């Protein structure tokens, strides 16, 4: 689906007042932060800036190669459109080109090259050399994304399941020397470890490069990694322009930083006129901008009649997590609809393959699960540890359907051009748009005490930014689904119930159950807490729950885990009854 980056390329149009203000600041030579809301044509605005001063040499640093290629076809000749990697390759990376084409390198080979040894983390966990090497290589990945000049313990990644301070210290102590040895190998032209594009970008950044340009434009500045942000900050000889949407900074969990907030610019300007959607979607986006206490408020495009409505068959379904995406892929398969998954299913397939290995008691090299030796340990971890809550739904899906079924589901995915429905996580949907979008029901309403009123202050900032990104992917029709609860959490007026279930066109007050294939009235479905009907009708939901329970009981490992959870609950109940009002034994 074509994005707002490209669909207006090549057209001539009069700039808005906000774009004109940016052009004037650019012509005056001022450094600038341009906070551009969703669909407001930030790339078109940068193109206008380049055209305003054709005698000035500019470098536009795009977020990825596809954006750079699109911009190269529409920007004026005085603007060089590049990614940070292409700039680094020209200066440093070409010397390592022979290493980029090397074969894949399993962790066991890297362990041999680094001389990794088994690591006793604690009495119950021993990491194999291949697992230790994997941690060391991941440490280098984090180092390459940082602005630091030396590998240190801060770059060692968290290993799921290794939570005690002494165990973490043991991992860091072993990983840092191996990582430094790995970086020494990667820095050599004749090194033997697998060389990647991030490695020459880091090598180039360590030379403290000065770009040969009068103007440097950084796109998607709110999600730059610290390394690219430091390169941009270093170009003090040039006029610098950081552009992005501060409320779409959704990659902080993987080390991204908001280069816009820390940049000492001469002027800070807004782009608020969206050309992607109309007033209904803009109003929904503004609820989340209100939660974020943002200065920006979006204005819808009056030529697009967007609306909020229930969507039995949307063009795209956006989910909070991979587990949510799997749920909707299963629904699509049972309905006989061809489904595509944005970004592909490799990540989900690897998790399912890891589950097969753990069920066989062989352990796994998967970085998320390498600290576990059996699938039962993973099940116990997600039930008892808060750090495993994000894996809980995925574990239950694998238990219910089996990892082989999940792998087969991934293998049936089709290309987006051939799909009846596109499923995506909200993170991977960023920068994309579709005519009709359904928000999945795995976006959870924040928990609060019974006597605590809803307050925007209780909504985590990261969740609010992800919700803002999600609702702004729709052009024409938005089914708010799992995010409809926002009406009770902000001061804006809630839409009338008719907005949610319009009986016009394809939006009806009935729904087809994907399990039995019968079209039924909405009262034949369970009503979830977010106000949406359940995926299956009441009868099929009960049957599915019974079948899932029966399958779990047939699996000896799962049955034992269910019994262990029951025993734990009984112990906690007995302890609670034996406690007095103050929490002490009666």
Please give the largest β-sheet.
6 strands, parallel
Binned, the helix content reads: 25-40%
Distance between the termini: 65 Å
Strands of the largest sheet, in order across it? 3-2-6-7-1-8
What is the strand tally? 18
Percent of residues in beta strands? 5-15%
User: Which term fits the overall shape?
Assistant: globular
CATH architecture of the domain at 17-92 and 207-273: 3-Layer(aba) Sandwich
Q: How many separate helices?
A: 20
Query: Any idea of the CATH class of the domain at 17-92 and 207-273?
Result: Alpha Beta
Measured on Cα atoms, how large is the radius of gyration? Answer: 26 Å
- CATH homologous group name of the domain at 17-92 and 207-273: P-loop containing nucleotide triphosphate hydrolases
Which structural class best describes the helix and strand composition?
A: alpha/beta
């Amino acid at each position: 689906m074509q994005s707002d980056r490209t669909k207006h390329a090549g057209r001539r149009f009069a700039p808005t007042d906000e774009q004109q203000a940016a052009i004037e600041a650019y012509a005056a030579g001022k450094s600038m932060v341009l906070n551009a809301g969703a669909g407001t044509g930030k790339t078109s605005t940068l193109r206008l800036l380049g055209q305003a001063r054709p005698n000035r040499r500019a470098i536009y640093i795009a977020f990825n190669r596809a954006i750079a290629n699109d911009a190269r076809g529409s920007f004026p000749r005085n603007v060089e459109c590049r990614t940070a990697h292409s700039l680094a390759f020209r200066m440093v990376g070409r010397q390592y080109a022979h290493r980029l084409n090397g074969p894949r390198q399993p962790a066991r080979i890297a362990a041999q090259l680094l001389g990794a040894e088994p690591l006793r983390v604690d009495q119950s966990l021993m990491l194999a050399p291949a697992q230790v090497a994997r941690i060391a290589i991941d440490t280098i990945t984090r180092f390459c994304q940082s602005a630091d000049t030396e590998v240190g313990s801060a770059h060692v990644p968290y290993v799921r399941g290794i939570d005690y301070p002494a165990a973490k210290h043991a991992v860091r102590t072993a990983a840092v020397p191996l990582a430094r040895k790995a970086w020494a190998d990667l820095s050599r032209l004749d090194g033997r470890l697998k060389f990647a594009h991030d490695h020459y970008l880091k090598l180039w950044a360590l030379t403290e490069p000065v770009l040969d340009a009068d103007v440097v434009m950084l796109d998607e500045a709110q999600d730059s990694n610290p390394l690219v942000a430091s390169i941009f900050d270093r170009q003090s000889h040039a006029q610098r322009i950081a552009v992005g949407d501060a409320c779409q900074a959704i990659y902080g969990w993987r080390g991204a930083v908001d280069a816009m907030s820390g940049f000492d610019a001469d002027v800070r300007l807004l782009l608020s006129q969206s050309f992607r959607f109309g007033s209904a979607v803009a109003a929904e986006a503004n609820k989340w901008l209100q939660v974020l206490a943002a200065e920006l408020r979006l204005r819808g495009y009056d030529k697009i009649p967007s609306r909020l409505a229930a969507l039995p068959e949307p063009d795209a379904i956006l989910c909070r997590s991979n587990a949510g995406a799997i749920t909707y892929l299963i629904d699509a398969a049972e309905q006989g609809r061809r489904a595509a998954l944005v970004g592909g299913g490799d990540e989900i397939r690897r998790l399912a393959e890891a589950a097969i290995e753990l069920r066989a008691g062989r352990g796994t090299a998967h970085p998320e699960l390498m600290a576990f030796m059996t699938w039962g340990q993973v099940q116990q971890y997600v039930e008892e540890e808060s750090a495993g809550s994000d894996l809980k739904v995925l574990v239950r899906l694998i238990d219910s359907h089996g990892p082989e079924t999940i792998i087969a589901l991934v293998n049936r995915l089709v290309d987006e051009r051939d799909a009846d429905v596109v499923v995506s996580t909200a993170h991977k949907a960023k920068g994309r748009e579709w005519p009709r979008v359904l928000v999945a029901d795995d976006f959870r309403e924040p928990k609060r005490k019974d006597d605590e009123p809803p307050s925007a202050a209780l909504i985590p900032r990261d969740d609010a930014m992800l919700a803002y990104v999600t609702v702004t992917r729709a052009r024409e029709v938005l089914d708010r689904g799992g995010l409809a609860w926002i009406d009770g959490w902000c001061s804006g007026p809630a839409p009338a119930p008719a907005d949610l279930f319009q009986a016009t066109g394809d939006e009806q007050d009935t729904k087809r159950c994907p399990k039995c294939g019968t079209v039924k009235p909405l009262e034949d479905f369970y009503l979830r807490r977010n106000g949406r009907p359940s995926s299956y009708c009441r009868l099929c939901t009960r049957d599915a729950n019974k079948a899932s329970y029966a399958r779990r009981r047939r699996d000896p490992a799962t049955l034992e885990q269910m019994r262990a959870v029951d025993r734990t609950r009984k112990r906690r109940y007995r302890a609670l009854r034996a406690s007095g009002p103050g929490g002490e034994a009666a």
